[in-house]
Design brief:
Layout lengths: L4 H46 L4 H7 L2 H80 L2
Helix pairs in contact: 1-3
Length: 145
């Protein structure tokens, strides 16, 4: 294999991992928006129930409260459905992110092993060259005596 193969592999794995991270960020933002909408709707419903005085009493007598509760129920069901769909997509993206991370770790590990192996081979070659030089120098010194 050529010298930069594992480095290129590592760069590609890193790019894939970063792309998966970007994809997951978008779905996390959507999940956060939906959860905030649910919380806001629940808070509005809580406040409306707590403020059951005066004008609201008149609305209740005409069925306004039932209409409000029906609307809240439909909105809550819609938000919960959207949240469930987002969570399913998030699950798939998390799996893809985990695979991309695993490939990145493996590629970096391979690159590191190859680098260490090449360093070891270079060191071994240097040691052998030094030993040969030492033997030659010793032989020359013995010959000159």
């Amino acid at each position: 294999m050529r010298d930069g193969f594992f480095e290129d592999l590592s760069h590609l794995a890193d790019a894939r991992f970063r792309a998966e991270q970007l994809r997951i960020q978008a779905i996390l933002a959507e999940e956060t928006r939906i959860r905030a909408s649910i919380t806001q709707l629940q808070e509005r419903q809580r406040r409306a129930r707590a403020a059951a005085t005066g004008e609201l009493q008149a609305q209740r007598s005409f069925g306004g409260d039932a209409l409000w509760e029906g609307w809240v129920s439909r909105m809550m069901r819609d938000l919960q459905t959207r949240l469930a769909q987002v969570l399913v997509r998030k699950s798939a993206l998390m799996r893809d992110l985990a695979h991309a991370h695993g490939k990145l770790v493996a590629a970096e590990d391979l690159q590191q092993k190859v680098r260490k192996s090449r360093q070891g081979a270079r060191q071994k070659s240097r040691n052998e060259a030094l030993q040969s030089l030492f033997i030659l120098q010793k032989g020359e010194a013995d010959k000159n005596r």
